[in-house]
Amino acid sequence: MAEEQKSVERAAEREENPYVSKFVTFFESVYKKGIERLVGEYPQKRSLEVDFKDLEEFDYELADELLDNPDYLLEAAEIAIQSIEVPALEIESFAPHIRFFNIPKDREILVRDIGSEYLNKMISVEGVIRQITDALPKLKMATWQCRRCGNTYKTPQESHELKMPTFCECRHRDFTLIQDQSEFVDYQKVQVQEPLEKLRGNEQASYLDVYMGDDLVHKVNAGDKIRFVGVLRLYPGQGKKIVFGRFLEAWHVEETEREFEEVEILPEEEKEIKKLAKNPKIYEMLTGSIAPAIYGHEVVKESIVLQLFGGVKKLLPGEQTIRGNAHILLVGDPGTGKSQILQATHNIAPKSIYTAGRTTSGVGLTASAVKDDFGEGGWTLKAGALVLSSGGICMADELDKMNPEDRVALHEAMEQGMVSIAKAGIVTRFKADTSILAAANPKFSRFDQYQPFIEQINLPATLISRFDLFFMMRDVLDRTKDGQISEHILRTHRSGEIISQYKKKGKKLRKEDMEEVEKIATPVIDAETLRKYISYARQNVFPTLSKEAIEAISDFYLRLRDLGRKEGSYAATHRQLEGLVRLSEASARIRLSDVVEKQDAERAIRLVRASLQDLVTDPETGKIDYDIIVTGQTHTQITNMKKILNIVKGKVREEEIDMVPLQDVLEEAKAEGISEDRARDLIDKLEKKGELYRPRHNFLKPTQRE
Fold this sequence. Notes:
mini-chromosome maintenance (MCM) complex, chain A, domain 1; Rossmann fold; five-stranded mixed barrel; 26 strands; elongated
């Protein structure tokens, strides 16, 4: 009898909705096998995914009507699927969701372009998940009981406002929700931010709330790039306000690629890119396109070019990965153009976020757990800059001014490409596959040429060691160079003045003025073309190391290790080896080559050598010593500190005294080849480390006696 009653109800619904029969025909002719598979997996799988293109080919009028009147037609489709005769159907209640995807391009709307004309229409929206709530129960069918007479009523809940019966038969309207007789469905709310690669210049990203129900819950994570298909709705009005909020009710969820695929490249643009790649001066052209208004720093700019193109991310057995992103640190005197270079790179990179100094917190970089109205009073996860820029570049200006506890957030992201969160009982990991271009100032504003550079950088050695390249940008007092910089800056200002003057007067630039502007401040390759060049290379080129490249990298690395082995120090570590590979791969990508050749390896070696030259060169010996970064001290310093400590301990032991006169230690250190000033400095460091202390003025005593 129950089955007969259902058949009668379906027949009545089919008569009421004229589109039901059309969907019945569509499902039987196109999706019969898919429905049979769904029946076998139901209710573990509760949705039938329908390609909109299939519906369009079957009946384009029906497809068009679905876009403009989605609620009515979805109801028809859900009635229709329950009318399909399937032999294996032994389920009492078969009511799957119909999830349409692959809707027309003209309905793929940018978040910033979603207007009132799309209300209650089917649209597609793409973006990065910025904030996400936990799964919460949502009332689907409410069962109400009258407190006066006990009668029960069922009311479907189709909007965000709770619906109750108007009156009971006893003329009262005092009802209680009977929870165990009501139907609930899981729902989750996310906030999506439009993709960064869609922004231009200083545009601010727009946001949209998205509601997902039932089997779409837990399909996305903060930081994922997702394409949603759904219907645009209005939030219920509050009070007498005439301005409403908006949200998207998601019908279909699809994860898309994270990297640079969003930059659309036309066939003629692809030809231009391939032509550029064959130019023998392409590296010089690309270097000249990075911050042309900043004079010099060619090595830094060339390194940034390689960072933009990036190395190849490797996937190994056992779900292990090796990062392809290169990290670069710029430390320089005031006025050397660090911030301008970062801003110029930010404007070129297809996907990037710019952060600076004390305005950036640790949770702003990684992710945070917050308790607010968005999560209905519960905890939500909010993605930070490193997560949102995954697959792109994060610019971290004034890194030295960031709070030390906030900088720690960079460590895991730089090496592992992940961000781990354990807050408010929420334990999870986000993908942060991001290249970092950071800038910092010396500890005392300006570099002192007589002090080791590592001692003048207010950053922990553990963080510095994670950068593939680090450059010292010094303001050198050189009359010839000062003249060249002065001329470049003044001519750049003149170019800007010419452009401003002509724009204000609404005139076209004269030929001679145009030539002057192009010569000074115009990039060799314009930003839009360069952005597409980078995107094309990262999407399509995945070079492998040639035998010659492997030999060149290996020889350089072994020579550095041998150099350190003779002195008992480390001139290179495995991180430098991997950095060389990443930079070599990036060099090959610029040429759109599938093979990393010897010239690519030599370019990477030259940049790494230039990077190591200033930062990790021992000022006393003039040799490369990577221990400077790992420990913050040169191998020579460590050796001399051990000598002084042994002098103090030896005198205490041999002369059987409790403390040693400072002057005796200084004289014996001098005999060991350590000057008095250097010895005093090393003694201070030993005191800070807790190896020595001064029990009396001008006397030393070891902390531990042998």
